[in-house]
C-alpha cells in the first residue's frame, strides 16, 4: 500500500479534538454599541464662541466640570474647541470655575474644636461602665 492509497485524515475527526467555537457565543448575541452623535454635528455648528453660554452649558455638569468626549459624543477636534471656549468664558467671568452650592450629599465633618473628649460619648449617650 502506497501513501497515495491512504485516505486523508480530517484533523477534526479525532474524538479528542474539540471545535474552537464550541461553548462560546451562546446566549445573547453581542452587538456593537451605536456611536453617539455630537450635538455640534447634528446642528452643523462649525465654531463655538465663548460668549454662546447656552451651548457651553450643554457640555458642562451642574458642578461646573467639562464633560468628557465619550459621554457627549464629540470628536477630538470638537472637544478641544469646546474646552478652549469654556476656559475663555471662565476667564471672562461669564461662567463660574466651580459651583459650590450643592444639595446635602451626606455627613459633614466636624470642626476640630467640636470633638468630644476621649472617653466621652457625643449625642449617642453615655459610655458604658465596665
Q: Kindly estimate the percentage of residues that lie in beta strands according to DSSP.
A: under 5%
Sequence of secondary-structure elements: HHHH
What is the global morphology? flat
- What is the CA-atom radius of gyration, in angstroms? 32 Å
The proportion of residues forming helix, as a percent range, comes to: 10-25%
How many β-strand stretches? 0
**Number of helical elements:** 4
Biggest sheet features: none
| Unreliable runs | none
Structure classification: mainly alpha
Q: Give the integer mean of the pLDDT values.
A: 79
Q: Give the N-terminus to C-terminus distance in angstroms.
A: 97 Å
Detailed description of the structure:
There is one protein chain. With 130 residues, the protein is an all-alpha fold. The protein contains 4 helices and no strands. The protein has helices at 39-42, 53-58, 69-72, 76-91. The chain is flat. The N and C termini lie far apart (97 Å).
Write a short abstract of this structure.
With 130 residues, the chain is mainly α.
Amino acid at each position: 500500500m502506497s501513501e497515495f492509497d491512504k485516505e486523508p485524515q480530517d484533523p477534526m475527526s479525532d474524538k479528542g479534538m474539540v471545535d474552537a467555537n464550541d461553548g462560546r457565543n451562546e446566549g445573547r448575541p453581542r452587538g456593537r454599541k451605536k456611536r453617539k452623535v455630537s450635538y455640534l454635528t447634528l446642528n452643523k455648528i462649525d465654531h463655538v464662541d465663548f460668549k454662546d453660554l447656552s451651548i457651553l452649558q450643554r457640555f458642562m455638569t451642574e458642578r461646573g466640570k467639562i464633560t468628557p468626549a465619550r459621554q457627549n459624543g464629540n470628536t477630538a477636534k470638537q472637544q478641544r474647541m469646546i474646552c478652549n471656549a469654556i476656559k475663555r468664558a471662565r476667564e471672562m467671568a461669564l461662567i463660574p470655575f466651580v459651583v459650590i452650592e450643592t444639595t446635602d450629599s451626606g455627613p459633614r465633618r466636624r470642626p476640630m474644636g467640636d470633638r468630644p473628649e476621649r472617653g466621652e460619648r457625643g449625642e449617642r449617650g453615655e459610655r458604658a461602665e465596665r
